[in-house]
Amino acid sequence: MASLSEHLSQKWRKFFQFFDINKDGRWTRDDFEKFADRLVIQADSMLTEIGACHVRRHCQHWLSIHEEQLCGTGVGEITEQVICDTMARLLLLNNNNAGCQIKELDIFSEVWFEILDINRDGRISEGDMWILYKCMGVKNLTKVGELFRELDLDSDHHLTREEVRVGYRQYFFGEQRQDFQSVALLFDLAGLQQGGAVCVT
């Protein structure tokens, strides 16, 4: 089994901890139901009942992609180590096939786009991204803006599906420490703010 560098391992562990809502070292359906609840509460003025169902459905789909297609666990939960082992496998695949399309990761980024597209207009605004991080307790608007501008490759103030796909590949598989430092900082801020149940204001 290939292994991730310390730098990449740290990125994935931060990512895992960001969505481990219950802070029990596992991703379960309950974590993603709570995550969906927070998104719906924060986006309340932008969501119809159908839109809220859309968010909840895609949050659960996102977990199932990790569980069934990425990790192959099929046990209803995913641990931090399983995520790191899975990403090491995908990284090896990517390195051995220069320029290859990693189908699993692209499916993941597609569902992630659907979750972030709060008002379902086919693109992600900075406001959409702000809702995501605010629901996780982050209150640093500057860092959210920095992340958005890093992802917005054509500087048109909206993110396309392709920009999200490219951004996530670059962040999670890029060895450059300066790549998307704002993401790591936001994950850290969310972890500091959560510490258990989050009261979002």
Q: Could you explain how this protein is built, in words?
A:
This protein has one domain (6-190): Recoverin, domain 1 (Orthogonal Bundle), CATH 1.10.238. Strands 1-2 form a two-stranded antiparallel ribbon. It is mainly α and 201 residues long. The relative contact order is 0.15. It has nine helices and two strands. The model is unreliable at 192-201 (pLDDT under 50). 65% of the residues lie in helices and 3% in strands.
Sketch the topology as an H/E string, one letter per element.
Answer: HEHHEHHHHHH
Number of helices: 9
Which regions contain 5 or more consecutive residues with pLDDT less than 50? 192-201
Gap between N and C termini: 44 Å
In which range does the helix fraction lie? Answer: 55-70%
Provide the CATH architecture: Orthogonal Bundle
How many domains comprise the coordinates? 1
- Biggest β-sheet: strands ordered side by side in the sheet: 1-2
Taken from the alpha-carbon principal axes, the silhouette is: globular
Question: Which radius of gyration do the C-alpha atoms yield?
Answer: 16 Å
Strand content: under 5%
